């Protein structure tokens, strides 16, 4: 009879994507919190035109 023990070990390869996602999310929230509403509208409007999505 053998017993296997699974331990949760966090390696750099599993922490790095999590840290990157957290920093990216924090940056997006911080930037959008400080930009003017018209600036957000213009950025979204330009993206819609660039992707060919009808917005008018």
From TrEMBL:
Q: Which InterPro entries match?
A: CbtB_put
Q: Which UniProt keyword terms apply here?
A: Membrane, Transmembrane, Transmembrane helix
Domain of life per record: Bacteria
Q: Which residues cross the membrane?
A: 12-31
Q: Pfam families attached here? A: CbtB
Know the name of this protein? CbtB-domain containing protein
- State the taxonomy lineage: Bacteria, Pseudomonadati, Pseudomonadota, Alphaproteobacteria, Hyphomicrobiales
């Amino acid at each position: 009879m053998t017993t296997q023990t699974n331990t949760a070990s966090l390696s750099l390869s599993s922490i790095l994507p999590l840290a990157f996602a957290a920093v990216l999310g924090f940056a997006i929230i911080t930037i959008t919190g400080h930009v003017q509403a018209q600036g957000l509208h213009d950025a979204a409007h330009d993206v819609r035109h660039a992707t060919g999505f009808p917005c008018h």
